[in-house]
């Protein structure tokens, strides 16, 4: 019981103390290996049919940060934070289903279950409308983004998710193929100051029970 209470308290502190930070200490860097570990932890997030459509471009080079800055509407955290992750969603993630589920079999999934499920699943995603495929990629991108931000906070880093950037310029500059869609940018580093206090609406205003309240 004591350990359960401690874990619960730690998790509550983690989600309560996380803030979107826009002012970063530019002297702080994060090693490539630690950034990889953050991404590994983030990709433990769930995804539709476990297709893991997230793709990451991690920007740490000062010259590339400077190129990204105007694309990101000159948000200074892109330059000052240790790294900015360009999070993309793959609308053709189903094409990796065989590899993903072969790995699942190696991890213990029955091969019979894999062989029965994968062909049907691939056909379902292959015939999905572009709008639905985009929606799936964005939803799964949101899941991995939140997990990345919490993983960073657990390691003592700060983050900010950004939707304010030019998708068109990002796609052009980084030569992003059509099947990958920008989801968001996430800067990671050490805060140079506190974020503004944020209020949340009372849960009663955003929750209905058993039917939607009008």
Automatic annotation (TrEMBL):
Sequence ranges assigned to domain Nitroreductase in this UniProt record: 15-190
- Keyword Oxidoreductase among record annotations: yes
* Keyword annotations of the record: Oxidoreductase
Q: State the Pfam families in the record.
A: Nitroreductase
Q: Per the record's keyword annotation, is NADP included, yes or no? A: no
Gene3D superfamilies xrefs? NADH Oxidase
GO MF entries: oxidoreductase activity
Q: Which family does it belong to?
A: Belongs to the nitroreductase family.
Q: Report the protein name in the record.
A: Nitroreductase family protein
Origin species, per record, is Paenibacillus aurantiacus
Instruction: Write the lineage as a comma-separated list.
Output: Bacteria, Bacillati, Bacillota, Bacilli, Bacillales
